Amino acid sequence: MRDPRASREAGAHETGATVSELFDAHYGRLAGWTARLVGDTELGHDFATEAFARLVREGGTVHEPRAWLYTVTANLVRDHWRKRSREGAAYGRLGTPSGSVDRDSATVLTVREVVLALPDALRLPVILHYYADLPVAAVAERLGKSEGAIKRDLFDARRRMAAQLEDVR
Amino acid sequence: MSDDPRGGAPRDPAATPADPDAALVRDFFARERTAAPTLDADPARWREIVETSARSRRPWLRYAAGAAAAAVVLGAVGVATFGRGSTAPPAPAGPVLSSSDVGSSPPSRRPTSSSVPTPTLSTSRPMSPSVPPSLPPSGAPVPASFAVRSLTTGAPGHLFALGTVACPGGQCPALAGSSDNGASWSLRHTFPASTAAPGSIPGRLGGAGTLTQVRFASASVGWAFGGAAMRTTDGGATWQDYPHPGGEVIGLETDGTDVVLTAAPGCTGGTCHGAISVVRAPVTAASATDVAGTIDGGSGVQDAPISWQGGQAFVSPVVVPAAGRPAPTPVVVATDGLHRAAPTSCGTGQAVRLVTAAAGTTLFTVCPSGGAAGQIGYAVQSSGDGGTTWRPIPGQPLLLVNAGTTSFAAADARTLLAVSGGSPDVHGSMSLSRDGGATWRQPRSAPPLPDHGWAWVGAPGGATFYALSGDGSGAYWKSIDRGETWSQVVVAGH
């Protein structure tokens, strides 16, 4: 059951949804979507929470809030990966193992592994178009690129991902 | 675009019809969307979102002072709307919730002198605020011998640490300050050696006339206490005695507007003997005179910590009850006295510790509930209505190494941190819950366990926790991700 305070305040608006309604509609899926991307349920919650908190602060100015939420979350994930990569490099310089493989990646691939194998510049278009199922036009608008540029990124990424996926078929 | 991210994507507008890779990639991601779980979107998550957005608007919340900000944002959330193609400008904030929206009506805040007996005003032992000769002057680097005993915040970016330094008389309490959130520190004041608490560790009562703890209400107004009590109005450069009734000060906390202290007479060897006086005053007052009420001190008072939430102060007496008497329960400080704020007892006759979440309106209690093999178990209950009703948290109990001292802090309705320490033989422990106390585990990247374990943890707001070791080192530990990872902040030698 939702917080009664929030339910009382979150009455439906004629022209759109309140953040409370968006929370009901999208939070669980966004958090799970993110958790699978980062391989960590708590981080999934943390990033989804942060995205919704930023939506609150936007104060009703956001177009296409679902696309906006997934874009904000994808950016948080990308920053998380970059940070982990820097830490991994630092540990590597110190000769510390960077982590262990917990299953046979030769037979099963997850979205996290497939996206992490891509160059950094291609990750967001792939996450937003293929994994979040956003149209190319929406991805282009959110990332501030032309549709043609996004299509080129996706073409390049597709070639790379297909080779990876073919290897485990 | 499918509105359901878990649904399949039957077409790929980014690919040409003849692209042989398109179907393979599309099918893979469709499977991954389906495999992604739908996680809980429970009320606690919603509250966390509201509180997180409030914290970002007010990037620093004083200890346990976030409820009002959260209420304001709840109003704003109610009127902000989003829709396809909407071009609505930012909506104005909605009305602030009334107290009945937040929970049961809280008691009025400030006690009045007519509501309680007016005690005879006594003062701490007179002390010279001057710095003894041959000690570092204010503004000097913090001596390498500085050992942190107490940590507090005053204003955004302002931290103060009370510790001890080597001085001609042995050890002297000293105050270090930082105006850049702990990046750099300078010495603000050195107190006389006579105010030092020999042999005591962080978090323990210091004894008569000593200064072991510090709290600040702003960047300029603060108190040092631990038996004695002194007040500064210039950021710690100079100090004056802080007259108060009730004996020696054993607890003091402020929400930036008011200060509440607990005092008891006859303190020796870490135990006081007599009733606990609970005193409240505006932070602008040079003394504390209004006793909100007294708590039976039983056979001995070991502690009486205070915590704030939403303008209300709660006191958790740690008392050895007299024979045949139950242990006193935590109380809330109200206009007409002290009112019970937590369950009657732990069922074990031991003290209930009340913990306020730094953001939100959740209260927690922790009760010793048995244990074995050198550990003590703690049962957790929570209240979302200011302590009117309480709900036991089911799940795995909190277990802490039985090392003498315990400390608890809550960042929000879901995140609690518990530590123990004090013994060089069994060290102590640190345990974190991210689900409101249902399950407990070690932080993902816990700091190394000090020889004497942990003496204190605090939640100043946001995702931040602070921790002090029982070793009396020249550093403290800080987490900015709700207790998961920790870094050491060195104060000594800056």
Give an overview of the whole structure:
The complex is a heterodimer of chains A (169) and B (494). Chain A has helices at 4-9, 19-38, 41-58, 65-93, 111-116, 120-131, 136-143, 147-167, and one strand at 17-18. Chain A is mostly helical. The N and C termini of chain A lie far apart (43 Å). Residues 1-16 and 91-106 of chain A have low confidence and may be disordered. Chain B has helices spanning 20-35, 43-57, 67-79, 99-102; strands spanning 81-82, 147-155, 158-167, 170-178, 186-190, 213-216, 222-225, 229-232, 240-241, 248-254, 258-264, 276-282, 290-295, 300-303, 306-309, 312-315, 318-320, 331-334, 337-340, 353-356, 363-368, 375-383, 391-392, 398-401, 405-410, 416-423, 427-433, 454-461, 464-469, 475-479, 487-490. Chain B has four helices and 31 strands. Chain B has a domain at 342-494. In chain B, helix 2 (43-57) crosses helix 3 (67-79). The chains are: A mainly alpha (169), B mainly beta (494). Strand 1 (17-18) of chain A pairs antiparallel with strand 1 of chain B, so a sheet runs across the interface.
How do you describe this structure in short?
Chain A has helices spanning 4-9, 19-38, 41-58, 65-93, 111-116, 120-131, 136-143, 147-167; one strand spanning 17-18.
* Average of pLDDT of chain B: 78
Structural class of chain B, please?
mainly beta
Q: How much is the radius of gyration of chain B in Å?
A: 25 Å
Strand tally of chain A: 1
Cα end-to-end separation of chain B: 57 Å
Outline the biggest β-sheet of chain A.
none
State the end-to-end distance of chain A. 43 Å
